[in-house]
Design brief:
By secondary structure, this protein is of the alpha/beta class. It contains 17 helices and seven strands. A hairpin with a 5-residue loop joins strand 6 and strand 7. The relative contact order is 0.09. The model has no long low-confidence stretch (mean pLDDT about 95).
C-alpha cells in the first residue's frame, strides 16, 4: 500500500514531483514531515528517483545536521586532500565550495535531516552565500533541509521554497486512498464503500493507520471503534514509532455516526422509495396526512417511514409479515441515525444487504 499512496494518489505524487522540480532547478527546499507521514522510506526513494530523472549527474546524499560550522563540515566531507590544500581564508567555505565545480559536493543533492530552528538559520545563511558564488553554467549542489518542527517564519523566496506534508494531505486524499487500498484486500465489494467511509473518517489523514485498519477489515467491520483503539495501542508505524494517542469515546462515536449517516441513510431512503412504489395506490388513497411537524403531505413520495409503519401496523396497508418486519427495521435504523446513534455492525450488514437484494 506504500507504493499506492506515493505513486497513485495525485496529491502525494504531486508533493514528490514539486520537491524534485524545485531542487533540480536550483531552489533549496525546506521540508517538514510530521511523525505520521506515511512510509517515509518510500517517499525518500521516490524523491531520489525523481531527482535522478531530472539530472542523472547528481547523486543524493542523506546526512544528519552537523553541530558545528556548516561550511567547514562540508569542506571536510566533500573536498579531496589536494583540493583542501588550495583553500585560502580570503574567501568563505561556502564561496570556495561554489567556485570550484570539480568539488564532489557540486555533483550532489544534499538532504539534511533533523534541522532545528536555530540551525536552519545557519543553513539559510550558508546556502545564500553558496548560491551567490556559483559560477554561471557550472555544476552546483541542490539542498533539501528537513526540519524537526514546522517552519515558523518566511524565507527568501528567491532561494527557498517550503513544503509541509501536514498542509498537503486532505480528507479527500484519505478517502481516495482507502477506496483504492480496499480493492487490494479480500474485502467483499459490497462492503468497500462503507468501510472506505468509516476508515477514512475515523483515521482522518493518518494514511498508515488507514492501511492497518483496512488490512484488518473483518474485525474492524464487526467492532470499528474497539478495533481502531486496539490497533492504535498495539500497532507500530513503518518508522517503528507508535500510532499515538486514541481519540476520546465521544469523538470516535460521532465520527462513526457521521460515516454511517453518509453511507447508510441513502440506502434507507432507497428502501422507503421502493416501499412507496410497491404500495403506491394504497398510500395515495390514505392521503392527505399530517407529519409530526403538522405539515400536510399530499403525495406518496413525501410520506415518512414512521407514518408508513403506523398504517401497516393498523392494517391500513396490507403487507406480508416479512415486509412488516423489514419496514419496522428500517424505521428504527432511520430513527437511530436521526438521533446521532451509531448502528451495530449486524444492523449495518442488513442495511447494506438490501442493495444486493433490491438490485
Amino acid at each position: 500500500m506504500n507504493e499506492l499512496w506515493w505513486k497513485q494518489i495525485a496529491s502525494a505524487r504531486d508533493f514528490i514531483e514539486q520537491i524534485a522540480d524545485h531542487v533540480a532547478f536550483g531552489k533549496a527546499v525546506l521540508l517538514y514531515l510530521p511523525e505520521w507521514t506515511p512510509w517515509c522510506g518510500t517517499f525518500q526513494a521516490e524523491i531520489e528517483v525523481g531527482l535522478q530523472n531530472r539530472n542523472s549527474e547528481n547523486r543524493l546524499d542523506i546526512i544528519s545536521c552537523p553541530d558545528g560550522d556548516i561550511g567547514q563540515y562540508l569542506f571536510e566531507s566533500y573536498c579531496k586532500k589536494g583540493k583542501k590544500a588550495s583553500y585560502r581564508p580570503t574567501c568563505s567555505y561556502a564561496q570556495f565550495l561554489a567556485m570550484n565545480s570539480d568539488i564532489v559536493l557540486n555533483q550532489r543533492y544534499l538532504w539534511v535531516k533533523g534541522i532545528s530552528e536555530e540551525r536552519l538559520k545557519a543553513w539559510e545563511k550558508f546556502i545564500a552565500e553558496y548560491t551567490a558564488a556559483v559560477q554561471p553554467g557550472e555544476a552546483y549542489a541542490g539542498f533539501i533541509l528537513e526540519t524537526a518542527s514546522p517552519i515558523a517564519w518566511r524565507v527568501d523566496s528567491e532561494l527557498f521554497v517550503s513544503f509541509d506534508f501536514a498542509q498537503r494531505v486532505t480528507s479527500y486524499d484519505s478517502f481516495t486512498f482507502c477506496a483504492l487500498a480496499g480493492a487490494e484486500t479480500d474485502m467483499p465489494e459490497a462492503l468497500r464503500p462503507y468501510l472506505t467511509e468509516v476508515v477514512s473518517t475515523l483515521c482522518q489523514t493518518d494514511i498508515e493507520l488507514c492501511a492497518v485498519c483496512l488490512m484488518d477489515w473483518k474485525d474492524f467491520f464487526r467492532s470499528p471503534i474497539e478495533r481502531y483503539c486496539s490497533l492504535i495501542k498495539s500497532g507500530l508505524r513503518s518508522n517503528g514509532k507508535s500510532f499515538g494517542v486514541v481519540a476520546d469515546d465521544v469523538q470516535l462515536s460521532h465520527s462513526l455516526w457521521e460515516a454511517q449517516l453518509k453511507q447508510l441513510f441513502p440506502i434507507i431512503e432507497r428502501y422507503r422509495s421502493d416501499f412507496i412504489q410497491l404500495y403506491f395506490h394504497e398510500i395515495e388513497a390514505l392521503l392527505p396526512v399530517s407529519n409530526r411537524l403538522g405539515e400536510d403531505l399530499s403525495t406518496p413520495q413525501d410520506v415518512e417511514l414512521g407514518i408508513l409503519y403506523y398504517w401497516v401496523l393498523h392494517e391500513q396497508i396490507k403487507t406480508s409479515n416479512n415486509e412488516y418486519h423489514t419496514l419496522d427495521f428500517f424505521r428504527k435504523m432511520r430513527n437511530n441515525l436521526a438521533h446521532l446513534n451509531p448502528l451495530k455492525s449486524e444492523d449495518v450488514y442488513q442495511i447494506l444487504s438490501y442493495i444486493k437484494t433490491a438490485g
